[in-house]
Amino acid sequence: MHVFKSAFEKTGYSTYQLSILVILRVLIGWHFLYEGIAKMLNPNWSSAAFLLESKWIFSGIAESIVASPAVLQGVDFLNIWGLTAIGLGLICGFFTRWAAISGIGLLVIYYLMNPPFIGIEYSMPTEGSYLIVNKNLIELFALWVIVLFPTSEKIGIDRLIAKMFTNSEVE
After folding, report:
1. CA separation for the pair 48, 75 (Å, rounded)
2. What is each CA distance from 44 to 49, 83, 164, in whole angstroms?
3. How far apart are CA 122 and CA 124, in angstroms?
4. CA 5, CA 136: separation in Å to the nearest integer?
């Protein structure tokens, strides 16, 4: 616990505040990692169903992706490995800022493909009743908090990388 305390004291935030930020980073990382691995292990998974549900401004792009098996396979590959890499980066505190920004980008795509707007109805039921704000939007803004409060510079692999380039002692 001494390592955590000394790392936290240097930021101006309390141990409790930074602990909660690290927990937030790890929980979001777990969600991304789990989604990536679950898709990877399911041989029948494809983003086609999600893409075909698109009803808003990007529905044409979604239909074109599904219409081309090679493009769909590429999108599936990028989705699976993107989720997995983002999750690992957030959990381990490895290139955390890049992982969080990449996660924000992915969530923006998910949100814009299937936004929770009035008048847009989907054939697949959602987990609840949403109006503008859904879990993708909430997680997107939580990742923005991770970008603004880089906890991995105190607890994570990013701290070790910074040490290598600055030749300073890690406390």
Report:
1. 9
2. 11, 17, 43
3. 5
4. 33
pLDDT digits (tens, 9 = 90+) for 133-160: 889 999 999 999 999 998 888 888 888 8
How far is it, in rounded angstroms, from Cα 53 to Cα 62? Answer: 9
Residue 8 has pLDDT above 50, yes or no: no
Burial 33-43 (b: 16+ CB within 10 A, else e): bebbeebbeee
CA-wise closest residue to 95 among 31, 41, 25, 166 = 25
Rg (CA), the chain: 19
Joined together, the tokens standing for residue 118 give 């009035």
pTM (2 d.p.): 0.84
DSSP designation for 169: P
Task: Give the Cα separation of 22 and 159 in Å (integer).
Answer: 13
Question: What pLDDT score does 132 carry?
Answer: 86
The whole-angstrom separation of Cα 89 and Cα 30 is 10
Which letter does DSSP use for residue 151 in this model? G
Domain ranges of the chain: 22-166
pLDDT digits (tens, 9 = 90+) for 11-44: 577 889 999 999 999 999 999 999 999 999 999 9
